[in-house]
């Protein structure tokens, strides 16, 4: 296991929730603290998309990171195909954990889509929402050089595909492509049971934003491959919601909370304070 990941995971409590939609696996740091913060990871990922963030963010609050239903260690809800099918399962998990209390929530990429649907359909649930590299704005349609996997590939061949795909979408700097990170990516991709997603390339979030009643904060990486040349349009596109702040983090790609973790953590704390 990725050594830093192992150290971070060892400080968490692993919680298995048995919801009507299936098993959900959560990790929580500093559970006894007040002001819970919920983290929703990106597509083909798991809670470890936040491996560089959970400990700093849990210094003075409880940090809860979900394995999205259908990814990581959480079960795929019956019939679930995309983010819009996960609102009810997510609400079930939040209800079991927090009752009717509203929580601060951060959604990265696919997790931002989940958060957008939740904010529109259960307006009482989210106190403040931070969206990070969120698709569904009618902009993230760039053609990226993604590669697929073939049956019978060796681990070395699979890792070459992961290197290509991480650099195509997630990362800016090749120095991040360590063997540990590639092993983590392989573990995540193998557990993704929700492969045929469509909403990311739509403008669904633009349609939903007027239903959001909580304050919204945006954080994007300056070199996000999904938004090349269009980052400056996002604040205007989100003018239909209560957008409090919008930050572009320099020297970072789509996975901004990994590549520029220290600055990202500061921005989260600044937004939620």
Describe the overall structure:
With 273 residues, this protein is α/β, with parallel strands linked by helices. The protein has one domain: 3-Layer(aba) Sandwich (Rossmann fold). The protein starts with a helix and ends with a helix. It has helices at 3-10, 54-57, 87-98, 110-121, 155-170, 179-190, 204-208, 234-237, 256-259, 261-272, and strands at residues 13-19, 22-29, 37-40, 63-66, 103-108, 126-132, 216-221, 243-249. The longest helix is centred in the middle third of the chain and has 16 residues, at 155-170. Helix 5 crosses helix 6. The chain has an 8-stranded mixed β-sheet with strand order 1-2-4-3-5-6-7-8, with helices on both faces. The chain contains 10 helices and 8 strands.
Short characterization:
This protein is of the alpha/beta class.
Distance between the amino and carboxyl termini: 34 Å
Number of domains: 1
Q: List how many beta strands DSSP finds.
A: 8
For the largest beta-sheet, the strand count, sense and barrel status come to:
8 strands, mixed
- The backbone outline, from C-alpha atoms, is globular
Helix content: 25-40%
Tally of DSSP helical segments: 10
User: What is the CATH level 1 assignment?
Assistant: Alpha Beta
Class per helix and strand makeup: alpha/beta
- The largest sheet has its strands arranged as 1-2-4-3-5-6-7-8
Helix and strand string, N-terminal first?
Answer: HEEEHEHEHEHHHEHEHH
Q: Determine the strand fraction and express it as a percent band.
A: 15-25%
| Rg of Cα set | 17 Å
Q: What name does the CATH topology carry? A: Rossmann fold
CATH superfamily: Alpha/Beta hydrolase fold, catalytic domain
Low-confidence stretches are: none
């Amino acid at each position: 296991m990725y050594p830093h990941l192992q150290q971070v995971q060892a400080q968490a409590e692993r919680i298995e929730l048995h919801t009507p939609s299936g098993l959900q696996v959560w990790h929580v740091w500093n559970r006894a603290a007040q002001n819970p913060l919920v983290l929703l990871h990106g597509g083909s990922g798991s809670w470890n998309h936040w491996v560089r963030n959970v400990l700093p963010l849990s210094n003075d609050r409880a940090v809860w990171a979900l394995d999205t239903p259908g990814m990581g260690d959480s079960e795929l809800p019956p019939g679930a195909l995309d983010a819009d099918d996960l609102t009810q399962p997510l609400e079930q998990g939040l209800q079991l954990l927090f009752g009717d209390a509203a929580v601060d929530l951060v959604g990265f990429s696919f997790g931002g889509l989940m958060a957008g649907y939740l904010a529109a359909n259960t307006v009482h649930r989210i106190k403040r929402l931070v969206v990070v590299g969120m698709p569904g704005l009618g902009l993230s349609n760039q053609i990226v050089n993604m590669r697929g996997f073939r049956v019978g590939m060796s681990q070395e061949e699979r890792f070459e595909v992961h290197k290509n795909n991480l650099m195509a979408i997630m990362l800016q700097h090749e120095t991040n492509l360590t063997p540990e990170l590639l092993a983590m990516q392989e573990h995540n991709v193998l557990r993704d049971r929700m492969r045929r997603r469509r909403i990311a390339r739509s403008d669904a979030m633009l349609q939903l934003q007027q239903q959001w009643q909580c304050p919204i904060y945006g954080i994007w990486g300056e070199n996000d491959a999904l938004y090349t040349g269009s980052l400056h349009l996002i604040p205007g596109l989100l003018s239909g919601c209560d957008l409090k702040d919008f930050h572009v983090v320099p020297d970072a790609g789509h996975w901004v909370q990994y590549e520029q973790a220290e600055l990202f953590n500061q921005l989260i704390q600044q937004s939620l304070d």
